[in-house]
Amino acid sequence: MCKVFAMTLRGAAQDWFHTLPSGSISSFMELAYVFTKEYTSYRTIKKNPDHLFNVKKKSDESLRDYIKRFKAERANIVGCDDQIASSAFKREVFATTERYALWDDDQIAAKKADQAAKQASKENGKRRSQPQEGAPAIEKYTKFTIPIHQILAQVNDMPWLKKPSPLKGNLTKKDTSRYCTFHEGYGHYTNDCFAWKRYLEDLVRDGHCTEFISRGAIQQIKDCDATNNEPPRKKPYGSTRS
Q1: 133 within some domain
Q2: What is the pLDDT of residue 240?
Q3: Which end of the chain, N or C, is less surrounded by CB atoms within 10 Å?
Q4: CA 205 – CA 199 distance, rounded (Å)
């Protein structure tokens, strides 16, 4: 029986058989034990229908690919109960839909906040200056001597600095390589944050962060104030030197 069994082996299994020390096997029972011990980790584990509840959609997997994988797992379960399979699939679909709904809520909230910031910036811009017909357009944002993310780093602990609520949403749906210190969340860089740019304009109008403004921009702001007869700032712009 031992000799006949060896003839049924192929490839790596046959190579394994020939590595057995000469005279080490005295009976077929002993051979069966040694062979089972060697290859027990290669056996196929039988799955029950409850296994489908563990088949979850991956963060980087499309819904179409998930459905294909779910069907493949179901096909590998012998005598799979249709009701259990349906329940497992529905539960994952509902969970995925809820994650997308939260992401949608985050996008809508961010859009509303952006629209409100645009409206406030537009109204503040009208108060600063009313360009004459045919006159060149005034630059949208004040020119600073350093990048605006460095300005935020220097004034981050100031009591007058008010930060918005962190952006909510599913982290797997956002670009985690881009971090915004103003929102304290992922999705965009601080230098590209329109909310921080607009808020920084408000801070400048209130007399804050003036030490970071270039001389040319300071003079432009003074000229606009004089033209519009605006009251003096809470704090003087720039240096007091002539």
Answers
A1: no
A2: 37
A3: C
A4: 10
